[in-house]
């Protein structure tokens, strides 16, 4: 989680630097009295870097996918209560057990 | 716990396809988060590059296609164990992201190219 946020913030910083470089480049073009045809190569490289960093951040920092199937491995209830020693099965309720047993077998 | 086991036995009984709604909701939240963040970043990039008109919208489609591929890769290419249909991973959050994209596109374009 923390690493993803850091990478994303770094990508946003690179974006800000690219925007600043483009503003400076446009100022230079204004002095040279030329037309703007496209951003310089270093800005394009910075934008690609920032895009890949932010893509990585967006795909990892958002959290993990959880399985939606009830029978999948990670949705199984594996934690048993801590006081297992106090569970009693030899009580009057066992008279009714055949009914539930049949349902479970099915 | 009792509810979970009851649900499981009922699922076995009538063989109906059910989903864990909480986990599905959490997966959708992850998708919205990723798409919104990437449409904002894509908008800023389109603004800095100086795209105008149709080019910017094509750029948005490109970004969203890459995002979809990334999300499918994040789901380890088994979409049906994390979502109930393909539309969830490909289409959801598309138009909401488009609004953010246009907002940040015009914002970055104004800052870089007009002022």
UniProtKB/TrEMBL annotation, chain A:
Membrane-spanning segments: 42-66
Membrane topology listed for this record: Multi-pass membrane protein
InterPro entries, alphabetized: MMgT
Location (main, coarse): endoplasmic reticulum
Database matches in Pfam families: MMgT
Assigned keywords, A-Z: Endoplasmic reticulum, Membrane, Transmembrane, Transmembrane helix
Compartments where found: Endoplasmic reticulum membrane
Domain of life: Eukaryota
Record family assignment: Belongs to the membrane magnesium transporter (TC 1.A.67) family.
PANTHER family, per database record: ER MEMBRANE PROTEIN COMPLEX SUBUNIT 5, PTHR21181
Quaternary state and interactors: Component of the ER membrane protein complex (EMC).
Listed name of the protein: Membrane magnesium transporter
From TrEMBL, chain B:
Membrane topology: Multi-pass membrane protein
InterPro entries reported in the protein's UniProt record: Emc6, EMC6-like
Subcellular location field: Endoplasmic reticulum membrane
Pfam family name, one: EMC6
Keywords, sorted A to Z: Endoplasmic reticulum, Membrane, Transmembrane, Transmembrane helix
Listed transmembrane segments: 32-51, 57-77, 89-109
Similarity remark: Belongs to the EMC6 family.
Protein name: ER membrane protein complex subunit 6
């Amino acid at each position: 989680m923390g690493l993803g946020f850091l990478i994303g913030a770094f990508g946003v910083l690179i974006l800000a630097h690219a925007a600043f470089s483009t503003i400076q480049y446009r100022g230079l073009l204004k002095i040279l009295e030329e037309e703007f045809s496209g951003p310089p190569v270093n800005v394009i490289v910075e934008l690609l870097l920032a895009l890949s960093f932010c893509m990585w951040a967006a795909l990892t920092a958002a959290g993990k996918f959880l399985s939606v199937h009830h029978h999948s491995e990670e949705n199984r209830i594996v934690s048993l209560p801590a006081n297992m020693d106090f569970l009693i099965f030899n009580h009057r309720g066992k008279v009714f057990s055949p009914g539930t047993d049949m349902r479970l077998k099915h | 716990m009792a509810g979970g086991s009851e649900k499981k036995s009922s699922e076995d009984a009538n063989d109906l396809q059910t989903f864990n709604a909480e986990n599905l909701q959490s997966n959708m939240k992850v998708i919205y988060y990723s798409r919104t963040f990437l449409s904002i970043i894509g908008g800023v990039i389109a603004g800095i590059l100086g795209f105008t008109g149709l080019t910017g919208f094509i750029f948005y489609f490109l970004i969203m296609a890459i995002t979809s591929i990334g999300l499918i890769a994040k789901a380890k290419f088994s979409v049906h164990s994390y979502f109930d249909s393909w539309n969830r991973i490909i289409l959801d959050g598309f138009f909401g992201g488009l609004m953010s994209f246009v907002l940040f596109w015009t914002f970055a374009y104004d800052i870089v190219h007009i002022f």
